Amino acid sequence: MSTVLVLNGPNLNLLGTREPAIYGSTTLADVEALCRTEAEKHGLDVDFRQSNHEGVLVDWIHEAGRAHAAGTLKGVVFNAGAYTHTSLALADATRGTGIPLIEVHITNVHAREAVRHHSFLSPVARGIIVGLGPMGYALAIAAVAALPAKA
């Protein structure tokens, strides 16, 4: 069975308690359960991770690239949080590995502060899902499942 890697960046461990008026009451554990349910529908396993550390996320993208090359990983769903708007390193890691990546944001980043309007990941992502709440993760997993098999 192939796997989808779901990566979560800084502060997403605080979902459910961090600014619930913006991010809602859904916890990261709830998001993980949603991802597992959606992946199962598509015959995929889920590797679900969160880190507040940019270098750890870079390492995980590198690991994902090797797994994708080996045919064991279908793709990555990535909510990089604030690193979306600041991290050339994450964009370079994604570009360098060629991993199919769907960028996800719980909120509509384009309707928020101007600093959140730019994404370093968008140019290297296969697709972007923003503003649909936690459901965006499920949609991203469905998109990964629909990607053609690795040649």
Automatic annotation (TrEMBL):
Upper lineage: Bacteria, Pseudomonadati, Pseudomonadota, Alphaproteobacteria, Hyphomicrobiales
Function: Catalyzes a trans-dehydration via an enolate intermediate.
Family to which the UniProt record says this protein belongs: Belongs to the type-II 3-dehydroquinase family.
Involved pathway(s): Metabolic intermediate biosynthesis; chorismate biosynthesis; chorismate from D-erythrose 4-phosphate and phosphoenolpyruvate: step 3/7
Enzyme Commission number, as recorded: 4.2.1.10
Keyword Kinase on entry: no
Matching NCBIfam families: aroQ, PRK05395.1-2, PRK05395.1-3, PRK05395.1-4
Keyword entries, A-Z: Amino-acid biosynthesis, Aromatic amino acid biosynthesis, Lyase
GO biological process, one term: amino acid biosynthetic process
Subunit composition and interactions: Homododecamer.
Signal peptide range: none
Catalytic center residues: Y23, H105
PROSITE patterns xref list: DEHYDROQUINASE_II
Gene: aroQ
Residues the entry annotates as binding substrate: N79, H85, D92, I106, T107, R116
Name assigned to this protein: 3-dehydroquinate dehydratase
Site feature: Transition state stabilizer: R18
GO molecular function term, any single one: 3-dehydroquinate dehydratase activity
Known catalytic reactions: 3-dehydroquinate = 3-dehydroshikimate + H2O
InterPro entries named in the record: DHquinase_II, DHquinase_II_CS, DHquinase_II_sf
Classification via Pfam families: DHquinase_II
UniProt KW Amino-acid biosynthesis keyword: yes
